[in-house]
Structure formats: structure tokens, C-alpha cells
Specification:
It is built from four helices and ten strands. It holds the Pfam family Cupin_1.
């Protein structure tokens, strides 16, 4: 009886193990869903679906914020679909800044590769956590909380940021307030800024209204 039970258990274990789905490489030709993209046919996959070479070159930092984020999210790297992970490259020129922003879909882990970066976040209790980070330092930014990164050194800075989601999302506070057509009077009422300042910021960031 004991031997029979072991044999039955072994068959059940093998059957359960065989039913595990190892991965779900995104089929970007199909619509996205709340649980991720549908899977590509496993028979059509190759090692190329699990390799991405887009983070080797520096991003273009000749812009307003003097910074560039090069993502390897599902849209760029379909292999991370459904795995709860992704990564991006962060380049900061001298004086570069990633303004206050949030990732509603995932937490972030930053590791400094080159230069000096001042980074921080604000908790939901409005407690501020910030620190100057050097090469090899790592900092965590919990999901959904406002956070920032600034190049606080005298040369270019490079970091890699990983996320607990293949599509963490992004909302930059300044752009959300001043880079759209939200009427100035509403921005004034909700931020306590004066109308002249709001219009100036809209002009800088391309907003209207």
C-alpha cells in the first residue's frame, strides 16, 4: 500500500510539474490585457526572445531635463511579459534630473554604475527619504510613491533601474500638471501657485489652457 501511494504521488507530481508554464513571451501583434500580452507560440521561440541588447548605448541627454531613460519593458523586450520584472538604463548628464514621478505598476531598485546621484522618495505619510549615492550603491523606491534622481556630481552619471513589473508605468508630476490642456484656473486652485507661474510652466513644458 505504501509503495502504491508513493507511485501515485510521483505521477501526480510529474503531471503538476509538466503543467507549469515557464514563460509567456509577449505577442505584440495582439492587444494588451490587464494580465499582460498573450503568449507567442512556444514552437516559434528562439534564444533571441530571451536576449535584449538595447541598453548598451547611452541615451540622448540633450533635452530639457538633461537625462534619458532607455527601457527594456514588455514593449521593447517581450520576454519579460508575465514575469514580474523589467529593467531600464538611466543616463544623467551634468545637471541632469529625473523630476518627481511615480510608477503605479511596480517598485523600483536603482544601482549606480558611474558618477554621483542624489535620489529620494516621499512616503504616503509625507516622510522624505533621500541620499547621495555613489558607484555601487543601491536604493529602493516603493511602488506608487513620488521619487526623483539628480546628477549631483561633476561628470555624467549612469545607473540601471529594475522594476517588479514588466510594465511599471510612469507619470511625471510636472508634465501631468503643466504639459497638457488642464485649465490654468484649475491648476492654480489645486496647487496654490499663482496664474503667472502656472502659465510660465505650461509654456516651458508645452501645455496650454
Amino acid at each position: 500500500m505504501m509503495i502504491q501511494s508513493v507511485v501515485v504521488f510521483s505521477f501526480l507530481f510529474v503531471a503538476a510539474y509538466a503543467s507549469v508554464q515557464d514563460f509567456c513571451v509577449a505577442d505584440l501583434s495582439l492587444p494588451d490585457t490587464p494580465s499582460g500580452f498573450p503568449c507567442k507560440d512556444a514552437k516559434k521561440l528562439s534564444v533571441a526572445d530571451f536576449v535584449y541588447s538595447g541598453l548598451g548605448a547611452a541615451g540622448n541627454t540633450t533635452n530639457l531635463i538633461k537625462a534619458a531613460v532607455t527601457p527594456a519593458f514588455t514593449a521593447q523586450f517581450p520576454g519579460v511579459n508575465g514575469l514580474g520584472i523589467s529593467i531600464a538604463r538611466l543616463d544623467l548628464a551634468v545637471g541632469g534630473v529625473i523630476p518627481f514621478h511615480t510608477h503605479p505598476g511596480g517598485s523600483e531598485l536603482l544601482v549606480v554604475i558611474q558618477g554621483t546621484i542624489c535620489a529620494g522618495f516621499i512616503s504616503s505619510a509625507n516622510t522624505v527619504y533621500f541620499k547621495t549615492l555613489n558607484k555601487g550603491d543601491i536604493m529602493l523606491f516603493p511602488q506608487g510613491l513620488l521619487h526623483f534622481q539628480i546628477n549631483s556630481g561633476k561628470g555624467p552619471a549612469l545607473a540601471f533601474v529594475s522594476f517588479s513589473s514588466p510594465s511599471p508605468g510612469l507619470q511625471i508630476t510636472d508634465f501631468a500638471l503643466f504639459a497638457n490642456n488642464l485649465p490654468t484656473e484649475l491648476v492654480v486652485a489645486t496647487t496654490f501657485l499663482d496664474a503667472a507661474t502656472v502659465k510660465k510652466l505650461k509654456g516651458v513644458l508645452g501645455g496650454s489652457g
